[in-house]
Design a protein that fits this description.
The chain is mostly beta strands. The chain has two domains: 3-151 and 310-346, no CATH class; 155-306, Sandwich (Jelly Rolls), CATH 2.60.120. 2% of the residues lie in helices and 38% in strands.
Length: 352
C-alpha cells in the first residue's frame, strides 16, 4: 500500500488528451475529475490509502495530416515527498502494430518516432510521505490539442529563375527542349510571355524541379501558354529522392489527371493531393496534349509546400523542488539505483 509510517499517499493527474483510455489500478476521481491511484484502504483517521503504483494508457490518438508536427507531451505537476511518475509514448502507422514504449525527454519532448498514431501512458509510483500529485489540471474532457503554433506558412516554393543554374535552391529539368528560346527554366521565370516547349514533333514529355532541400509538396499550379492547345492534357505527378538530374532514379506517382482542357492563355489550374513525405524532385509527366501536333509546352509550373505547425498539450508550470533526504524504492522507471537529482536530469518534470 502507499502508506508508510501512518502517512497517506495520494496522486492525481488531469490530462488534456481525453480521459478515455485503459486503467491499471487507476481511476477517474468523481469529485476532482483527475486520474488517480485507486484507494485500497483507510488510515486511522478514515482517510483513503492508495495502492503503491498504477498506470493509465490513453486511447490511440490519430494525429491526421499534422502527425509530423506533434512534438511534446506537456505537463503541469506538483509533487511533495518521494512520489514520482513516468510519461511514455508509443506510435503506430496503422493503429494496430505499435512500437515499444519510450519515455519522453526531460523537456516533455516525445522521443518516439514520427508516425500517424500515438498513445500516452502515465505511470504513477507511490512515495513514502503524504503526497499530492497533480499534472495538467486543465479541463481534459475537451481540447485534445490545446496549443497549435504556426512555424511556417504554406506557399509556392519554386524560386524565380533566370537560367537553368541561377538558383541555389534547385534546378529545373525536362525530357527535351524545343530551342534555346523555349528552355525549361522559362516555365519557372514568373513571366507570362515566356514558356517552355518540348522538342519539335514530340508530344509526350515531362517537366519538373529538383529542390536542394527536400519539400513536402501537396499542391501544384500549371499556367497555360499562348499556344494553349499544346498544353498537357493527361499526366501523372511524380516525386523522387534518388534522381540526380530529374531523368534518372526511381519515381513515385502522387497524382493523376486526365482530360484537362485548356481554352485560353494564362489560365491557372491548381491541383491538390495527399502527401506526407518530403522529396527532392517533383515533375509532371504527360502522355498527351490538347491536340497540338508540333510540340507540347507549359506556361508556368509551381509547387506548393505545406506550412508546418507545432502541436502541444498545454502546460503552465513553475519549477521548484524540495530534495528528499533519501531516494529509495522499487518499480519506478526513474528510481533504479540513482539519486533524486540524477533522476531529475533524466526526466525533469518541474518537481516540487
Amino acid at each position: 500500500m502507499a502508506t508508510i509510517g501512518g502517512n497517506t499517499e495520494k496522486k492525481e493527474i488531469g490530462l488534456s488528451i481525453g480521459v478515455s483510455g485503459t486503467h491499471d489500478k487507476t481511476m477517474i476521481d468523481k469529485t476532482t475529475g483527475y486520474l488517480r491511484l485507486v484507494d485500497v484502504d483507510v488510515d486511522g483517521q478514515g482517510n483513503p490509502v492508495y495502492i503503491e503504483q498504477g498506470s493509465w494508457t490513453s486511447d490511440a490518438i490519430d494525429l491526421g495530416d499534422v502527425f509530423q508536427d506533434f512534438e511534446k507531451v506537456f505537463t503541469d505537476n506538483t509533487v511533495s515527498g518521494a512520489s514520482s511518475f513516468a510519461a511514455l509514448t508509443r506510435v503506430s502507422d496503422n493503429g494496430i502494430n505499435w512500437s515499444k514504449w519510450v519515455a519522453i525527454a526531460e523537456d516533455g519532448a516525445i522521443q518516439s518516432e514520427t508516425k500517424q498514431y500515438i498513445q500516452v501512458r502515465i505511470d504513477l509510483f507511490a512515495g513514502f510521505v503524504s503526497d499530492v500529485f497533480i499534472i495538467a489540471n486543465s479541463d481534459f474532457d475537451t481540447n485534445k490539442y490545446i496549443e497549435q503554433k504556426v512555424l511556417s506558412k504554406g506557399r509556392y516554393v519554386v524560386p524565380k529563375l533566370t537560367s537553368n543554374t541561377s538558383s541555389t535552391e534547385g534546378f529545373p529539368f525536362s525530357s527535351s527542349e524545343y530551342s534555346s528560346t523555349y528552355v525549361k527554366w522559362k516555365a519557372f521565370d514568373k513571366i507570362d510571355s515566356a514558356y517552355f516547349l518540348t522538342k519539335a514533333s514530340i508530344i509526350e514529355g515531362f517537366l519538373g524541379f529538383y529542390f536542394t532541400n527536400k519539400k513536402r509538396i501537396t499542391k501544384y499550379n500549371i499556367r497555360s501558354m499562348i499556344t494553349y492547345q499544346a498544353m498537357p492534357k493527361s499526366w501523372v505527378l511524380q516525386a523522387s529522392n534518388d534522381t540526380t538530374d530529374g531523368i534518372n532514379g526511381t519515381w513515385k506517382d502522387l497524382d493523376t489527371q486526365i482530360n484537362q482542357i485548356w481554352t485560353a492563355t494564362n489560365i491557372d489550374k491548381e491541383y491538390s493531393f495527399s502527401n506526407n513525405e518530403k522529396y527532392h524532385a517533383y515533375r509532371i509527366n504527360w502522355t498527351e496534349n490538347n491536340g497540338y501536333t508540333t510540340y507540347s509546352g507549359v506556361g508556368e509550373l509551381d509547387f506548393y509546400e505545406e506550412g508546418t505547425t507545432s502541436l502541444s498539450l498545454k502546460r503552465d508550470y513553475q519549477y521548484d523542488m524540495t530534495m528528499d533526504d533519501t531516494w529509495l524504492g522499487e518499480g519506478s522507471l526513474h528510481r533504479q539505483k540513482i539519486t533524486r537529482e540524477e533522476w531529475l536530469k533524466i526526466d525533469r518534470f518541474e518537481v516540487k
